[in-house]
Design a protein that fits this description.
It holds the Pfam family GrpB. InterPro entries: GrpB/CoaE, NT_sf. It is built from 6 helices and 5 strands; from the N terminus they run H-E-E-H-E-E-E-H-H-H-H. With 181 residues, it is an alpha+beta fold.
Length: 181
């Protein structure tokens, strides 16, 4: 499979805003904090046209409650990933009219990560986003890697994500150093 990377779209901010309001309504009993993360949250950065969303919950015990609240909506739970990252629940937001078995990349509108708000995962994703927003050189490095990797054929979208890991870790370490200054 090829990974589609396109230039930054101003509409991604509006798409996130609509998804945020929808999720605030669906997850209202949990009072989540909802953030736009990933490349679509960084003006000027190329990205897959899939909005990455992070919802922060006060308690890890609420994670499974979130899955129940999203059942029967356009957000399909992916419990296969619960074992890999037990403190996160991952959902794929499907485009209108898409059934659960049809959520290949072209049919996705969003990826939703639900994690405890006090987790390292939460903090690192926000730090990384802000670092890329403020640092043109870091954003350009990341963009080049994404574009280069998008030229390859991938057996699964996760292989593409894994291929970016070393660069992300390096940029995140730079971000942490600068935050500590």
């Amino acid at each position: 499979m090829k990974i589609e990377i396109i230039p930054y779209q101003e509409s991604w901010q509006e798409e996130f805003s609509l998804l945020k309001e929808r999720l605030k309504h669906l997850l209202a009993p949990l009072e989540p904090e909802i953030e736009h993360i990933g490349s679509t949250a960084v003006p000027g950065l190329c990205a897959k046209p899939i909005i990455d969303i992070m919802a922060g919950l006060k308690e890890e015990a609420e994670l499974d409650v979130s899955a129940g609240l999203l059942e029967g909506t356009e957000f399909f739970s992916m419990p296969v990933y619960n074992e890999q990252i037990p403190f996160r629940r991952f959902f794929i937001g499907a485009k209108k009219g898409v059934e659960p078995g049809e959520v290949v990349h072209k049919n996705r509108s969003s990826h939703l990560h639900i994690v405890p708000i006090e987790s390292e995962w939460w903090n690192e994703h926000l730090l990384f986003r802000e670092y890329l927003k403020r640092n043109d050189a870091a954003r350009d490095i990341y963009a080049k890697v994404k574009k280069d990797l998008s030229m390859h054929e991938w057996s699964h979208g996760n292989r593409y994500a894994e291929a970016k890991t070393d660069v992300i870790r390096g940029l995140l370490q730079d971000a942490k150093k600068k935050a500590g200054d």
